[in-house]
């Protein structure tokens, strides 16, 4: 993956192991909040867990099963953004940011770069963002980036307690993206 410099201080970089400690520190500092929306946050118990995930992601990227980048601000890891479950002309978008980096538009700028890759380079037809109903911030990202709210899916996302919670699915079509650029 080629690093993408979005602004003088914002970049999307390849998931490499030397960044694991900084990513783990962001997760550890905000684990309670992150795990409300992203159950994997509770599986990261030490830097080695994050390093193992980055190694796994590198393999998935090489196998064309995943596109994932670390969002950096002033050269420091701030979070991640990815495309996963790519099939039949569409893919799901995932993202997270550490607490100090929220509210500055970094996800929106990263999402716009991801859309360019997905719709231009890969010719995907549709991108989807899945959120839980209580994740107002993620829904705001989808809405402010012109994603359409498609549906509420009952009992769709597994919880740590072994139950399922509802999901709200947002999408953007390539044809709509073309009219927005």
Automatic annotation (TrEMBL):
Recorded GO MF terms: protein N-terminal-serine acetyltransferase activity; protein-N-terminal-alanine acetyltransferase activity
Keyword Cell membrane: no
UniProt cross-references to Pfam families, sorted A to Z: Acetyltransf_3
PROSITE patterns listed in its UniProt record: GNAT
Alphabetic keyword roster: Ribonucleoprotein, Ribosomal protein, Transferase
Domain N-acetyltransferase: 14-175
Keyword Protease (UniProt): no
InterPro entries noted in UniProt: Acyl_CoA_acyltransferase, GNAT_dom, Ribosomal_N-acetyltransferase
Listed GO CC annotations: cytoplasm; ribosome
Protein name: Acetyltransferase, including N-acetylase of ribosomal protein
